[in-house]
Amino acid sequence: MKVLLLTGLGALFFTYYWADNFDPASLQGARVLLTGASAGVGEELAYHYARLGSHLVLTAHTEALLQKVVGNCRKLGAPKVFFIAADMASPEVPERVVQFALDKLGGLDYLVLNHLGAAPAGTRALSAQGTSWLMQVNFLSYVQLTSLALPSLTDSKGSLVVVSSLLGRVPTSFSSPYSAAKFALDSFFGSLRRELDVQDVNVAITMCVLGLQDHASAAEGVRGVTRAKSALGPKAALAVIRGSATRTSCVFYPWRFHVLCLLRTWLPHPKAWFIRQELNVTVTSAV
């Protein structure tokens, strides 16, 4: 009986993760606003969209890095690429970014939210000021961008793509403010998905649960604290694009993260010994 049950579960996982109806042609000419596009997964997302023939507006904090990515996208065949440097820590910036994208592209088919702010890991990050800054960049700006872009996405029956982290599902040590923002994203967009369904609004929401260190700034924030290794940017980016293009509700990369999220239900309070296996606890300071 146990063998049959395990076989059945294995078949379900196989079907869930490997059934693929992704059509690359569906992204040709798609109008995409991509945030956090200057490095890491965001940069790789820009290159994938460029190869697939999408029209792009890219934004990130650093203009010089954006210009490099824009040049590479043009070489890869993107028919239209625009950029706008923006600091999402400023509450007035999201409106300027969305309006710029609408002016340049005439509308949106995809809003891909990928930007990230990461405070230094450890107890020194536990301050009201630092947490407020993180919430603005990693959560409130996502809400603002979504609210501003939603009318256009509704008209195009488009997609919202939210690149989040495993720490938005499974909390861990020395990441309290960061994890709080990621949990907020998961809750907000999960609720929004239900609201859109009830109102018969045909806008898909795809939550993408990636490793913390798929983002360069997050990797810097936990350098020397965690032993976890980063995932490959191009592969993670392709998983995001496939999932959002097929209007999947959630993407896990690597796929084993889905298993970890399920295990959290059975083991909500892991022992400290297990936590220490992922940490260099000697480098952290006491409260």
From TrEMBL:
This is Hydroxysteroid 11-beta-dehydrogenase 1-like protein. Pfam families: adh_short. Keywords: NADP, Oxidoreductase, Secreted, Signal. It catalyses: cortisone + NADPH + H(+) = cortisol + NADP(+). The keyword Transcription regulation does not apply. Unidirectional NADP(+)-dependent cortisol dehydrogenase (in vitro). It comes from the Eukaryota. It is found in: Secreted. GO terms for molecular function: oxidoreductase activity. The keyword NADP applies. PROSITE patterns: ADH_SHORT (PS00061). InterPro entries: 11-beta-HSD, NAD(P)-bd_dom_sf, Sc_DH/Rdtase_CS, SDR_fam. The gene is HSD11B1L. One of its GO terms (cellular component) is extracellular region. Its main location: secreted. Belongs to the short-chain dehydrogenases/reductases (SDR) family.
